[in-house]
Specification:
Elements lengths: L2 H16 L6 E6 L14 H14 L3 E5 L8 E3 L9 H7 L5 E2 L7 E4 L19 H5 L4 E6 L9 H9 L4 E6 L2 E4 L2 E4 L2 E6 L13 H9 L4 E3 L8 E5 H14 L13
Length: about 260
């Protein structure tokens, strides 16, 4: 049995075990520091990445991955500006049928039947008509492949936006957004960490929320997160509701700080 077959069987069984096939849309986080050892058994990095998500796509699921570029000035081209993230995030942008959202700082790409969900996204990165807003009520879930849940989830910034975290502030960007030669717009916004509070970086920390999600039974997981071989699944709507409740109980739950503004 080849290493490639081992990986594919492990992933298919893992996806089944955690209930990934029950969702329609899967917001995926990957970390290949461990699973990447299998890449040498494939003819190319493209084939390796394809193998990781093929069971989901074949089953008719839509996958969503981050393709952030952090283009805070100049031009962001939806069709051409490369992501600054990892192998899987780069891979999805090379797929002919992908759909990519237009936010110049925090863009996303999707493949599958519901990929058009990302078209014409709103100008707020984390608020109304953002990817997070649009996923609500869509039988969406988070799926981690080789990435511990404790390392973070961008959805916490959606909660901070909705609940009005005082250690963040709204900022607009003059970046001009194009799709090919078509001008889309400018003044996209994001809810970002404040830089005006001395000795405060407001660095995020998802370890406590991740532990609470686990204790609540919201995370289904197989494999070792410590060895970066985990497959972890948790429903989107349930997670957003739970994180919002956590924030309302403790407005510092997402940061490594005791700061609060009264």
């Amino acid at each position: 049995m080849t290493m490639a077959t081992d990986l594919e069987r492990m992933l298919k069984q893992g996806f089944y075990s955690v209930g990934a096939y029950d969702a329609d849309i899967l917001y995926i986080y990957t970390d290949f520091r461990s699973l990447g050892a299998h890449a040498a058994s494939y003819p190319s990095k493209n084939e390796f990445c394809k193998a990781v998500v093929s069971p989901l796509l074949i089953s008719g699921k839509t996958i969503v991955l981050t393709t952030f570029t952090y283009t805070s000035q100049g031009i962001f081209n939806v069709n051409g500006t490369p992501t600054k993230l990892g192998a899987m995030n780069k891979w999805i942008l090379d797929q002919p049928d992908h759909v990519r959202s237009e936010h110049p700082i925090f863009s996303y790409a999707a493949l599958g039947p519901a990929a058009k969900l990302l078209n014409g996204i709103g100008k707020s990165a984390f608020g109304y008509d953002s990817v997070f807003h649009r996923l609500r009520g869509k039988r969406a879930a988070f799926l981690h492949i080789g990435r511990p849940v404790s390392l973070g989830n961008t959805a916490l910034h959606h909660i901070e936006h909705l609940c009005g975290a005082t250690y963040r502030a709204h900022k607009a960007f003059r970046t001009e957004v194009f799709r090919g030669e078509q001008y889309i717009g400018t003044d996209y916004t994001a809810f970002l960490r404040r830089r005006d509070v001395p000795e405060e970086s407001f660095e995020f920390d998802f370890s406590r929320p991740a532990a609470a999600l686990g204790e609540k039974g919201l995370i289904r997981e197989v494999g070792s997160a410590q060895e970066l071989r985990n497959i972890s699944f948790y429903w989107y709507d349930d997670t957003i509701d739970f994180l919002a409740d956590m924030f309302n109980d403790n407005q510092r739950i997402f940061i490594k700080s005791d700061y609060i503004s009264y």
